[in-house]
Design brief:
Elements (H helix, E strand, L loop, with lengths): L1 H20 L1 H4 L4 H6 L3 E7 L5 E7 L2 E5 L3 H28 L5 H25 L5 E2 L1 H36 L4 H27 L2 E5 L6 E6 L3
Antiparallel strand pairs: 1-2, 1-6, 3-4, 3-5
Helix pairs in contact: 4-5, 4-7, 5-6, 6-7
Amino acid sequence: MADKKWISHTNRRLRQKLYERDADFRGFHSHSYHKHFEDYTEYRRMGANGRMKLVREYTGVWYRQKLSLCPYLLIRILYVLLSADMVFMLIQAGCRLAPTAWYLTISEFMTVLVLTALSYILLINYVFAPRAMTVGQYKSASVSLGRISLAAAGCFAADALFVLLSFSQSQTGSGKGTVMAAAQFLACVLSALAMSAIERRVPYEVSTAAEPHGDDGVPITVD
């Protein structure tokens, strides 16, 4: 069984390398192109005008959440509410703070970038993803959401730490406002961790796709 898997993997890599050398068929595609079309198969088909055209067909596995419609929708609503709550608390905490140290400014800027990426992944890739997802859609939705939510939790934790550190060093601003801002950052940490924990526990079922029916099919994979 192990030998068959090794032979299949070797043949797949060999076909990929031969495909990469076929400039007339493949063109000059980047790694991003192969990542976007991971587990697709490209093959030639004769068009109505007699010219060959390139057709892509997905031949990888499909990922589908093993949830009924109600929890499927509730999870998405919960994620959107958690994301909106983090944005609200970040703005509110920033308004409580007076001009602070440079390291806190950088930390808050990084938090804004990560939270923007989280909102994009959630609203574009996750919420509007189809029920049956390709491997690329699954990675850009579920996998990316889990990773970016952990990154957001780390940024918010750094914000809370730097707020308290900056206040202890400068002793400027309101002590109550500083504590409230740090508490809001910590609440954002819990929200981001909750989002990551829930997504890790969402069950997925994996099913295989139909085989391609074209000629000269070459799989597009990512190393």
